Amino acid sequence: EPEVTQTPSHQVTQMGQEVILRCVPISNHLYFYWYRQILGQKVEFLVSFYNNEISEKSEIFDDQFSVERPDGSNFTLKIRSTKLEDSAMYFCASSELLAGAGETQYFGPGTRLLVL
Amino acid sequence: DQQVKQNSPSLSVQEGRISILNCDYTNSMFDYFLWYKKYPAEGPTFLISISSIKDKNEDGRFTVFLNKSAKHLSLHIVPSQPGDSAVYFCAASARGAQKLVFGQGTRLTINP
Q1: In 3D, which of B27, B97, B30 has the Cα closest to residue A100?
Q2: Fewer CB within a 10 Å sphere, N or C end of chain B?
Q3: Displacement of CA A90 from its chain's centroid (Å)
Q4: Chain B contacts of A44, Cβ < 8 Å?
Q5: What pLDDT does A101 receive?
Q6: Best interface-test mutation with A: which of B100, B102, B106 has the largest number of A CBs within 10 A?
Q7: φ, ψ for residue A84 (rounded to 5)?
Q8: Are the Cβ atoms of A45 and B46 closer than 8 angstroms?
Q9: CB atoms < 10 A from the CB of B67, how many?
Q10: d(Cα B49, Cα B82) in Å, to the nearest integer?
Q11: Three-state DSSP class for B82?
Q12: pLDDT tens per residue, range A34-93
């Protein structure tokens, strides 16, 4: 069964450093998403991406964050200058069609980011 | 953001019995609802969904019920099995919006 994959599974970084989290969405999916879950809190939406551009973003997704689809398979989340409060589990998701049209999003296993 | 609420942080059920997980929402624009199951150190796994035009959807041991007037949905698992022990998240999306809004999750423990 096709699945979303994410690398790395764990990332430890120093505050102020840049990190890139990588995702390979399900191959025939057109919509891509990033969510995060801070320990003990809800899963929160960060951004959605379609046709090589951001289609929706939350207030969390400020100028420190960026997303890119550098090739036909990878989808990346970059945090330019990490803060302690960026420590969280980051989940990538993808869907075949627009999620708001009743389409299911499928999630990857997550990357646990720890900022020291 | 309390648009989706799961008021029970945990639930313990005997193996073989029915597990009922509840979820309430406040945004009347939500029209698609999903349940995800999550094991520690893994991503949410899709279980079952329901559109607002329906009031019930069934898939094997899992049934989701939607009460639009009460803005309430529930997930029934019957019979419950030890492998069902996990955290269950309710999520919702609105027509035209791309984000899923998640509840806080309910930790289900199935006791042998």
Answers
A1: B97
A2: C
A3: 6
A4: 102
A5: 62
A6: B100
A7: -55, -40
A8: no
A9: 11
A10: 22
A11: helix
A12: 999 999 899 999 999 998 999 999 999 999 999 999 887 899 999 999 999 999 999 999
Give the residue carrying structure tokens 């997930």: B75
pLDDT above 90: residue A14? yes
In this structure, what token pair is assigned to residue A52?
């090589």
Which pair of structure tokens corresponds to residue A27?
Answer: 């191959």
Q: What are the structure tokens assigned to A89, written together?
A: 């589990």
Q: Residue B75 is encoded by which pair of tokens?
A: 């997930």
pLDDT (tens digit per residue) in B35-78: 999 998 889 999 999 999 999 999 999 999 999 999 999 999 99
3-class secondary-structure state, position B26: coil
Q: Which of B44, B98, B104 is nearest residue A100 as measured by Cβ atoms?
A: B98
Pair of tokens at residue A88: 């969280």
Q: Which of residues 3-62 of A touch B (CB under 8 A)?
A: 4, 6, 31, 33, 35, 41-45, 48, 50, 55-56, 58
